Design the sequence.
């Protein structure tokens, strides 16, 4: 039994955790949920020894333990696997070395490497988890889910008693998530406790026994999942009843403004036909890896078109690069917010005025005043929570960063807005605000393409859906006439000819 | 769409893994068909001897590359080491032993100073060692009073001839042979073996790679990153100084600029080494093969009367091809 008692952690100006009590039983899969900024990550970092100071105490089986660095946490059997798996891996070394890393650094006495032992032990861990990974392979060549498995293998080797998985399924495909859950169950049966952080509540209900909810740094409670529903958990997270998170968008759908016919691209997109009408939200539904991101990028000139045409207002346009796409009136909010959507080390105003800086210049010199005015307007319009327009984007929460990523396209007129998984890793509250923003865009007579692997979103938000599978559009559906099951059917390859 | 792509990827992987080896073999095959003397023992020895200095300096650079650094001062350290050795023997008559030990110590210390600027002052590796290169050249030229140091050199101000000579034991490092194999080649192979064993079979070598590949993860796992980075630069300085001693002995003089021509070749050899066998990280075997590839190419081209002043074109092409393999792979 792991007990965290009265944990308080303050950062300059913020009380991130306020007297949190969090208990995890033996061989239990325990979900930790909360909106972004609720303190989940901070709490887990305290547990993993990332911070050397905090108030409160941590007990394992009633014994008070001291955790002020990662090494001590590991010694107590607490291991964390972060969402960004690459931060903990050594890409140019083998799987075996990555699994055995802690042994090599801390326990290996001999100067000379005992390769036989290292490979043998790593292989044992890999086999115990039923994985099909060659331990001699360099980690840099592995897929994301395999990398995650390597880290879990490392945790098992360390004889972890408490394994923290921080949003492990966010980047995984359905198939890969399933595999992860199998392994998590297996570890549970071997007596390991797993703390599972996730924004996907359906997963939480599928694999966890208990859930603890944090809100604004405070502990709301621990609940038996058998006695809860998704709605009730969301209510605890938000502190209020969840209204329908999808706004009612009443707007007239007019003629076609954007059209792609038989479009194929170098990035694997194959003969895609798609139309967007003014005032319409068109969904691109599909599982991870179906080609939604690729299609978005192809439309936006980020990959080479090998065949087919793109038309805007009945005129053929050529997007040979992203600059042309923007000039033609296309806007893209990319999937990778942090690396593609915003410049994290720049201020909010720099980010917002980035795409059409010309507007804020006088004779090629930037006008500070115009930039500030425009930025304040957007900050207000899209509801970015920040003390100042000069704030670095890196200091904002995920949801607010995404609003910056969207906001930069609102300062000028674009015809078609492409959103690629805009709500990935964002809390429920911010999600609703982003939906509202998208609603405003279409009510101005623009077209929106909304790519998502969350079918609930597709169903709640769009007018029409294209289902993607393996780089192709396999089905077009009217949103009002379809359901999650049908979307899943087509996006898993059901109904497609012989492929 | 899938099958076609897969084939091209497999072909690329093959190229990535064995491309460099293939180019080396093709080069050897080509020259041995068209040149009668190419595969003779004497010529092969010649190639090895010609790459021994480049090989040693590139091994020094390899050490810094493993920790994700780059020691551009290695060639200047080599030149300085040769000057110190020459001054100790020719001007100060201090004998062979100090003339070998002191330059090596200086090399290690310079490596430590490099590390200090990189770690404590937070200067990028490239710029810190570039500055060090200038600084060392200046110090060295001052130390040698502006001219090269050699046997029986006239001293300034009509003070007559230099009193000492480069000892035979020292010159043996550069000019001697053991069983017909030149000593520089033997020294290069010994150092290469040392680097190979260190990087692949000691835990410290693996720590170097961990630091070079993901410094943050290495740090959080409990590796004293600064300490090992410093050691890497000291080892680089050590090997560069050894290269300098061999160089000085081979030329029979001490001159700091003697090391300069080897810098770019050595950097190139170390980077070509990344791509050998698709290892994708700096390594001893790859570095030596990289040096040999360039040596072989140049040797063959010279024998075919390729103008020496155009050699850099060949070096440049080889380097850019090898880098393309490594970085294109990383991108995908």
Sequence:
């Amino acid at each position: 039994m792991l007990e965290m008692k009265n944990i308080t952690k303050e950062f300059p100006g913020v009380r991130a955790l306020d007297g949190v009590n969090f208990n995890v039983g033996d061989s239990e899969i325990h979900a930790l949920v909360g909106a972004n900024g609720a303190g989940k990550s901070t709490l887990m970092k305290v547990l993993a020894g990332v911070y050397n100071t905090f108030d409160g105490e941590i007990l394992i089986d009633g014994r008070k333990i001291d955790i002020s660095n990662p090494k001590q946490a590991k010694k107590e059997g607490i291991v964390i696997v972060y969402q960004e798996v690459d931060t903990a891996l050594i890409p140019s070394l083998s799987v075996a070395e990555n699994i055995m890393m802690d042994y090599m650094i801390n326990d290996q006495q001999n100067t000379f490497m005992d390769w036989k032992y290292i490979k043998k032990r790593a292989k044992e861990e890999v086999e115990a988890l039923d994985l099909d990974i060659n331990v001699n392979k360099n980690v840099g060549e592995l897929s994301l889910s395999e990398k995650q498995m390597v880290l879990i293998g490392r945790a098992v080797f360390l004889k972890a008693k408490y394994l923290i998985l921080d949003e492990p399924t966010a980047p995984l495909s359905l198939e890969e998530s399933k595999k992860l859950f199998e392994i998590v169950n297996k570890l549970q049966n071997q007596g390991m406790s797993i703390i599972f952080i996730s924004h996907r509540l359906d997963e939480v209900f599928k694999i966890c026994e208990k859930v603890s909810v944090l809100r604004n740094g405070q502990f709301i409670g621990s609940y038996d999942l058998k006695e809860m529903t998704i709605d009730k958990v969301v209510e605890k997270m938000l502190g209020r009843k969840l209204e329908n998170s999808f706004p009612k968008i009443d707007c007239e759908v007019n003629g076609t403004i954007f059209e792609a016919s038989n479009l194929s691209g170098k990035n694997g997109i194959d003969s895609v036909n798609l139309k967007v009408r003014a005032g319409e939200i068109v969904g691109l539904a599909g599982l991870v890896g179906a080609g939604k991101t690729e299609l978005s990028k192809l439309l936006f000139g980020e990959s080479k078109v090998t065949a087919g045409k793109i038309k805007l207002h009945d005129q053929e346009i050529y997007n040979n690069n992203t600059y042309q796409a923007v000039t033609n009136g296309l806007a893209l909010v990319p999937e990778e917010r942090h690396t593609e959507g915003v410049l994290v080390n720049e201020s909010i105003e720099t980010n917002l005025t980035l795409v059409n800086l010309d507007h804020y210049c006088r004779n090629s010199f930037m006008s500070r005043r115009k930039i500030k005015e425009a930025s304040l307007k957007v900050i207000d319009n899209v509801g970015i929570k920040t003390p100042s327009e000069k704030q670095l984007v890196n200091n904002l929460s995920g949801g607010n960063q995404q609003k910056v990523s969207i906001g930069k396209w609102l300062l000028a007129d674009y015809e078609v807005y492409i959103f690629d998984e805009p709500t990935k890793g964002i809390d429920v509250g911010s999600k609703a605000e982003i939906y509202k923003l998208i609603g405003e865009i279409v009510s101005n007579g623009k077209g929106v393409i909304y790519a998502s692997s969350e079918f609930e979103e597709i169903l709640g938000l769009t007018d029409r859906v294209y289902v993607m599978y393996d780089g192709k559009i396999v089905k077009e559906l009217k949103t009002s006439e379809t359901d999650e099951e049908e979307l899943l059917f087509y996006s898993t390859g059901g109904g497609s000819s012989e492929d | 769409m899938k099958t076609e792509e897969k084939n091209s990827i497999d072909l690329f992987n093959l190229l990535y893994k064995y491309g460099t080896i293939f180019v080396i073999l093709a080069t050897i095959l080509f020259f041995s068909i068209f040149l009668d003397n190419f595969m003779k023992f004497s010529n092969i020895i010649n190639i090895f001897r010609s790459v021994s200095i480049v090989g040693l300096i590139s091994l020094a650079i390899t050490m810094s590359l493993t920790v994700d650094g780059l020691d551009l001062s290695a060639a200047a350290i080599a030149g300085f080491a040769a000057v110190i050795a020459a001054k100790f023997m020719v001007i100060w008559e201090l004998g062979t032993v100090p003339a070998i030990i002191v330059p090596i110590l200086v090399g290690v210390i310079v490596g430590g100073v490099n590390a200090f600027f990189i770690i404590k002052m937070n200067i990028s590796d490239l710029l810190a060692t570039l500055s060090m290169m200038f600084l060392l050249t200046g110090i060295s030229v001052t130390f040698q009073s502006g001219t090269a140091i050699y046997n029986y050199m006239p001293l300034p101000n009509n003070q007559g001839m230099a009193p000492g000579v480069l000892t035979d034991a020292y010159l043996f490092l550069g000019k001697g042979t053991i069983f017909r194999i030149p000593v520089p080649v033997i020294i290069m192979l010994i150092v290469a073996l040392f680097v190979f064993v260190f990087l692949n079979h000691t835990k410290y070598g693996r720590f170097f790679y961990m630091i070079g590949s993901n410094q943050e993860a290495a740090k959080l796992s409990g590796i004293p990153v600064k300490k090992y980075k410093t050691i890497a630069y000291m080892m680089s300085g050590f090997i560069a100084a050894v290269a300098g001693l061999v160089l000085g002995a081979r030329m029979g003089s001490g001159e700091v600029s003697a090391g300069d021509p080897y810098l770019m070749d050595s950097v190139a050899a170390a980077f070509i080494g990344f791509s050998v066998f698709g290892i994708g990280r700096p390594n001893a075997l790859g570095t030596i093969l990289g040096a040999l590839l360039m040596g072989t190419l140049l040797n063959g081209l010279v024998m075919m009367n390729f103008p020496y002043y155009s050699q850099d074109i060949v070096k440049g092409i080889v380097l850019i091809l090898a880098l393309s393999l490594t970085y294109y792979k990383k991108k995908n």
